[in-house]
Amino acid sequence: MKFRLAAPSEDAAVGRLITESFEPITWYREVDERFGALNGCDWRERWRMRLEEAFAREIVLVMEVDGEIAAAAAGTYDPRTALGFIDLLAVDSRRQRGGLGRAMLNAMCDHFRGLGALYVNLDCLANNEAGMKLYESEGWTSLAPSVKWFRKL
């Protein structure tokens, strides 16, 4: 396995991998199930717009296995606080449960460390059981559970 920064030409492929990986757990999809598409934009379109923003302003690291992108992570680093933030972490659905998420998580932490980070944080939905188990097993500390609230005006 090899880790490297994603090229802008790979945004579409990385976006597909992330969207597919997040489909079972994203709250964006649940909004559609309860309220319908928002102003004509279904969850996939809203997710595509979110990824477009992330790819434009965040560090995007990918993992290659056998010449294919198998996992990706995106995040930001603030040198003033020496804090990295992992915004997205995804593994190709065909390769999940094989330790690639753990490897991608550690690679992103190593990348931040190389930039000078002393700390890193991330958010994880409570219904993402695999993510919750991963972060706990890697020594992360849960600080403040939160609830997503949504209301139609």
Plain-language structure description:
With 153 residues, this protein is α+β, with helices and mostly antiparallel strands. Helix 2 (27-35) runs antiparallel to helix 3 (43-57). A 5-stranded mixed β-sheet has the order 1-2-3-4-5, with helices on both faces. The chain is globular, with a radius of gyration of 16 Å. It is built from 5 helices and 5 strands; from the N terminus they run βαααβββαβα. 40% of the residues lie in helices and 23% in strands. The protein has helices at residues 11-22, 27-35, 43-57, 100-115, 129-137, and strands at 2-5, 59-65, 68-78, 83-91, 119-122. The model has no long low-confidence stretch (mean pLDDT 94).
Question: Could you tell me the mean pLDDT?
Answer: 94
Could you list the spans in which at least 5 consecutive residues all have pLDDT below 50?
none
Portion in helices:
25-40%
Q: First CA to last CA: what distance?
A: 48 Å
Largest sheet: 5 strands, mixed
Structural class by sheet pairing and helices: alpha+beta
Strand content: 15-25%
Please state the CA-atom Rg, rounded to the nearest Å.
16 Å
Number of strands: 5
Order of helices and strands: EHHHEEEHEH
Strand order of the largest sheet: 1-2-3-4-5
Name the overall outline: globular
Put simply, the count of helices is 5
